[in-house]
């Protein structure tokens, strides 16, 4: 999950994830849509692949063409962690509120 969060910390990589939510895309399409040079996009895609957020496939007609698509596992793991964290904080805040009410310090 650390790699997922680190990869998503960059706004360009988040933009790539948003673009790939619509449909799989070629690296060149992603670079153009994000306003990045091909080498810069290549670096971002390398990071996204290393984190497991995207996978690369080769076009059946031309092995040089790389098509990128999202992979669900890292986001599923992150979503589950966020849900568990939210539950923990809700429980903590509820216990704190009960404690304060018992003391008569809060309404």
Automatic annotation (TrEMBL):
InterPro entries: ArsR-like_HTH, HTH_ArsR_DNA-bd_dom, WH-like_DNA-bd_sf, WH_DNA-bd_sf. Coiled coil: none annotated. PROSITE patterns: HTH_ARSR_2 (PS50987). Pfam families: HTH_5. Residues 1-86 form the HTH arsR-type domain. SUPFAM superfamilies: Winged helix' DNA-binding domain. PANTHER family: TRANSCRIPTIONAL REGULATORY PROTEIN. This is Metalloregulator ArsR/SmtB family transcription factor. It comes from Sphingomonas colocasiae.
């Amino acid at each position: 999950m650390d790699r997922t969060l680190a990869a998503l910390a960059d706004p360009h990589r988040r933009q790539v994830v948003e673009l790939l939510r619509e449909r799989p895309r070629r690296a060149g399409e992603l670079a153009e849509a994000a306003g990045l040079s091909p080498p810069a996009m290549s670096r971002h895609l390398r990071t996204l692949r290393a984190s497991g957020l995207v996978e690369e496939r080769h076009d059946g007609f031309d092995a040089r063409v790389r098509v990128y698509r999202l992979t669900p596992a890292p986001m599923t793991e992150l979503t589950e962690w966020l849900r568990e964290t939210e539950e923990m904080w809700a429980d903590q805040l509820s216990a704190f509120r009960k404690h304060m009410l018992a003391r008569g310090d809060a309404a």
